[in-house]
Model the fold of this input.
Amino acid sequence: INAEYGGQNFKIHMRVLTRKTLSKSIFRPITMDTSYGYHQPTGVSKFWREKYEKLSSKYWDKFYVRNKTNFFKDRHWLLREFHEFGSDYGAKTVLEVGCGVGNTILPILTVNPNLFFYGLDFSREAISLFKSHPKFDPKQCHPFVCDPIKEDIPDLVPRGTIDLCAIIFVLSAMEPENIKIVAKKIWEVLKVGGLVLIRDYAVDDFAQSK
Done:
């Protein structure tokens, strides 16, 4: 992916992650070539990192109680970024990790109703709002509460059946060691040859720095 930041070019090297890839190496780090340097974060103490990680679902529940479905916009642009969601690709079953209130799942199903989505999120409030959405159809999607760091993905998602797994702006909110835990659990439900679709912040991009 070539991008431009502050008038200077840099390059991010990423790989498509498949079930075969994940079984060999769990999420190799992204490498970046850059001429403008990397600004190290000021850092947060271990105590506060662990506290926020432990209570993260509680904080997100409060967030959704306050904002309902009004904060995040529907991600119609994902169909442009990931053609695999389209009908031509032939995917049937999708898992979204961190589905929130359905800002990814519902717009995609509007365009491609042939997909079936499982959506997991550790916020009970988010899942409740998702299920109360007027476009929610249990025949097309099954959102459920799950913290994939602390819990196994439940058996309602059959092992080895997922064509696509979407992880949109989720990994950047995890401690690096927890990404490996989640990746292993995703690998367990992916079909052989299934794809993991990731969209997240790049180091020092504008949205992250805001």
Helices lie at 19-24, 46-54, 56-67, 78-81, 105-111, 124-132, 176-189, 206-209. Residues 1-40 have pLDDT under 50 and may be disordered. The chain is about 30% helix and 25% strand.
